[in-house]
Each structure stands twice: as structure tokens, then as C-alpha cells.
Amino acid sequence: MAKEKITPRSDDFSQWYIDVVLQSQLADYAPVRGCMVIRPLGYALWENMQRALDSMFKETGHQNAYFPLMIPESFLKKEAEHVEGFAPECAVVTHGGGKELDEPLVLRPTSETVIWDMYRRWIESHRDLPILINQWANVVRWEMRTRLFLRTTEFLWQEGHTAHATEPEAREETMRMLEVYRTFAEEWMAMPVTPGRKTENEKFAGALETYSIEAMMQDGRALQAGTSHHLGQNFAKAFDVTFQDDSGKRDYVWATSWGVSTRLIGGLIMTHSDDDGLIVPPKLAPTHLVMVPIWRSDEQKSTVLEAANRILDDWKLKNPTCRFHLDDRDQFKPGFKYNEWEVKGACMRAELGPKDIENQQTVLVRRDKREKSDKMFVPLSEAPTRIGAELDAMQHDLFAAAKARQEERTTVVDDYEEFKTLLEEKGGFFMVHWDGDGETEKRMQEETKATIRCIPLGRTPEKGKCMITGKESKGRVIAAKAY
RNA sequence: CGGGGCGUAGCGCAGUUGGUAGCGCACGUGGUUUGGGACCACGGGGUCGCUGGUUCGAGUCCAGUCGCCCCGACCA
To answer: What global pTM score does this model have?
Structure first.
């Protein structure tokens, strides 16, 4: 009998989330304020995300580059809204080489400013445009409150920064990348999202317009999972980046920026995982199938391990994209291994013991099926195809389940009092009429703690009255409590 | 920055009215085990967050200080 189980608790969602992260060994608290250590399992997940996103960026014509970590403080001050938005959360380097610096260096909270300082030197003519660059980097934001993956002082992300000759081109790019994020979230992470435009209050500091994809976690709170900004000519003007068009006329360059971060890992956990630990969609899972061999005697051990290796070699040959692992550790019993791999989010488990070898079969178990009786006795000859099929099904099922939860917790509401009640009792997304006034939005936030997550793209126009002020509204927006 | 909580072995914790530190897990060795979190025996491991004070004596009492976690206001 085990005395202490490594199982997340279910009573409190925040505590459950922390337990899943720590116990699955995705990450750990670091001895640095608000920072975390991403452990190998967490990083493997991030690498899989990176790989998928990076190939999507390449397909849309982007290239990777790298810009410096430290930015002269004066750069940030060049764009008024930008400095106002980011100044409070900047970490600043004041000394170097044992001396006080003439000008402090800011640890980048985002890279628009250094990048646009460089773009000024790179852009002369319309022939230099567009510039489509992405960088994988770490950034630092000194937030008051931190939370593993969702908001750490330092985090990893990807930031795209593009320069265009015309406004429509920049707008098109903004929407294209938002769609890339939507595709990635839904098809890879199996996390349903709602793409939409941010309100003036919520938009990026220095942007003309901000778009985001909004996801819903299992506790009914919203998570901003990715953003794409139409920066207009704000940064070009601040950094004096102009080009000559084909008629010889000079104009400021149009810009976009877009990014997703390791926050996605937090979103992934809060979307799919359960009280037994991590659940990861197969397209991103570091381990697809772990084989747990079972033996009693030393004689059985050698027979079973020999068979396990042979069978896995066969499976690898027939499922070359599948990530297999053989857990042949001697010091743990099978039951312990089952639990451990469930906590760590391996998509499937194959049990192989003497009886199975005798019967030329294996026992397959899918991580996302909670029923303990969900054991599949599969003939070895059929196993490779079955594994592939189950992984495909799991990817599909996870999305369907998350989608169902999201729809079940999306409520159309017209009355403010009803909204307040349901917000507390049910949570989730609320489709509400809003008069478009920032003051009304602030009032709602103060009174209910909910914010307008986005104005959904392609919403059906619907005349209505603002839930709070009763003024005219052209359509519904999404309101929710957010992380 | 407000509210709450916690700092004692790698981790999780106990430690009574002050008397010189303990439990579980983990770890090491040996053995028995292995189809849902094994068991037995022996063993290693601590400047009790830090500083000062009270006292014959402080993990325990007092003052200060540092750090961390959770909940809010800000944010990817």
C-alpha cells in the first residue's frame, strides 16, 4: 500500500492546477521572484509546440531572427502609449562592468522598439518590403502577481514583427496570423478558441487594433491564448521608418506584431487535464505510448523484456511518427508505473505480461478515458493500426469534449442582474450587448470582475440594448472573468 | 500594494506549560516481491529562514528582518 499518493486534488481549481504542474514535473518554482523552471517534460511540450508553430510561420513566409535582450531605456520612451503601458512592469539594468550605466537598459518586455530601430536602417524602398520576421525569445515582465505558466516574471514566447508598404497588407497580415493561432489552438492543442477584436481598454500599448484568441478553462474562466496586433504607423512614426513607393513618394511603414507564449502550456493543462494528472493531445504529447512490461521471476523478466523490445521495434517501424517509450525500470511495480504515466500525461499505455505474450495480445489503455475498465485487449498483429487510430480518436475526442464544455458554458444574457448572478454561479462566456463605451466596460469590471474578452469576428449583427446602460448596441460581445 | 498563510532532513509535516529534534515519503544496503501506487531489516542525512533580546537553558517567548505561497487590483 502506498502511503502518499501523487494525485492532484479536485476541491480547489487553483490548487489542482498547481498540483498537476508540480506533480507531473512539467515545471518547478525557481528561487527567483515569480519565475519558474521549465523541467524536461514541460520543455519537450514547448518544443513540440514550437515545431508546429514554426512550420506554420514558415508556410506563411516568415523567417526567424534574433534581437537583443537589453533595450536602451530611451527606445521604450519613443512611443507614448507603449512606454505608458510597459514602464511599470519593466526590469531595468543599471550597472555593468562595475559602474553605473549612463543609460539604463531595460530587459525586453517585448521587442517592438529594438526591432523598429533596426528596421529603420533596413528599409529604404518599397522593394525592401514586406519584412516578415519572427523571433523565439524570453521576455521579462515584472507583474505583481505571478502564476505558473500563465504569468511568470520571465517567460518564453514567439514574437512576430512585420513591416508593410500599405495598410491593407498590414491588416491582412494581422488577420492571417490570428488565423494561424486559431488553427494551432484548435487543431494541435485541441483547445477551442474564439477569435475576436479587443476593446480600446484591452488593446496592446501602441497598437491601432489588437485581436486575440480567447479560450475557456475548465473552471469557466477565460484565457487570452494569443494576440495579433495591427500597429498601424505608430512605431514607424516613433522610430522614423519611411520608404519610397514606386512613384517616389515617401511614407511611413505599416506594422504588425503577434505572439504566443508558454502560457499556452497553462491553457493546455487547464483545458484537458483531470484529477489523475496531465492529459496532452497526441499531436503535442512528448510520449504517445508507454509500454509497461510485467514479470514475476527473473526468467519471465528476460522473456518479457525481449518480447517488449521486439514488439516496440515493430510498432516504431509501422508508426514512425509515434513517440514510444519502454518503462523497463526494475524498482517499480506495474501499478506504480500506470499511475506515474497518467500523472505525466502519456497518451496511451500498453501492458505486456507473460499471459499477453502467450495469447499474442497486449492491453491498451487510453489516458483520456476515466473508466478504469477501459482496457482494450488487442491482438499484437492489430496493435500498430489500433494505436494510430486511438491517438487520432483521442485528439478528436479531446477537442470535442472541450468544445462541448465551452458551448455548455456560453450563455446569452440581456439582463445585468441575471448576468451578475450567472457569472458567479455558472461562470464561462457571456454573450452580451454593450454600448461600446470604455466607461461602461470599466464599470462592469469594477462591479463584477468580468471583462470584455473580445468582440467576436464574424458575429451576426444584432440590434440590441446595452445590458448596463440600455444604449444602442450593434451586436454581442464576450464577457467573462479572465486569468 | 492590500488580505490570509507558511518558513524545522531532498519533499510533506509534527514538536505539549521553554530542558538540547522527531514522523511519513524519498534516499543507501541486503532480502522477499512485481497484472492498479509492495514489504521487512538495518542505515545515512538538521547551523530549526536570518538578526538581536529575555533566560541557567529558546525550534518553542519577545522585537525586528528576509523569503515564499494563496486570494484581490495589473497583464501574454
So the answer is: 0.95
